[in-house]
Structures are given as structure tokens and as C-alpha cells.
Write a structure and sequence with these properties.
mainly alpha; about 85% helix; TEX12; Beta-carotene oxygenase 2; rod-shaped
Length: about 120
Amino acid sequence: MMTSHLIKSDTRNCKRPRELEPQVADSPQLSSVGKSDSSFSESSGLFDKDESLEKDLNDMSKEINLMLSTYAKILSERAAVDASYIDEIDVLFKEANTIENFLIQKRELLRQRFTVIANTLHR
């Protein structure tokens, strides 16, 4: 009577039922069977956790790879835009160089004309 009273009080205070906890068996055969069952359930639980963890890791790996490929695509697009800007700037520098050379030629032509005008006035 007292043991049944103790078991009832344990089940009320405990979060899981008493029968799920390993109990000390009276015979050695039951004891070894209980141990192998519990070790099997523990190892299968670990196996489930490993599978779940592996699945989570694979999912995260896929997400990371997707983010990295998206990032690489964005960088590629930005590099293409930068290359087009560089091409535009290159064209602008060539035009500026052409204009500079034209202005240098104009300046020399004007110097020559002023020299001719100055020589004519000094005579």
C-alpha cells in the first residue's frame, strides 16, 4: 500500500508518467532487456536528432548558397554597370582630349595671326 501511495505522489509531482522512467527490475533478464530497450530508444532518438540536424544544416546550406549566388549576381550586374560607366567616361576623356588638341591648335593659329598683325603694324 505504501509503495502504490508513493508512485501516485510521484506521478502527480513529475512531468512525465512514472512508467516511462527506467525501473529496477526484480530479475536480471528483465534488467538487461530494459537497458537494451532504453539504449535503443536513446540511440534512435539521437539518430532522429542527427537526421533532423543534418536536414536543418542542408536547408541552411541551400539558403546560404542561394544568398551567395544572388550576391554574386548583384555584384556581376554592378560590375557590368561600372564597366559601362567606365566606357562612357573613356569616350568623354577622348572627346575632351580632342577638344583640348583643337584648342591648342586654335591658340597657335591665333598667335601666328597676332604675330603677323603685330609685324605689319611695326613696319
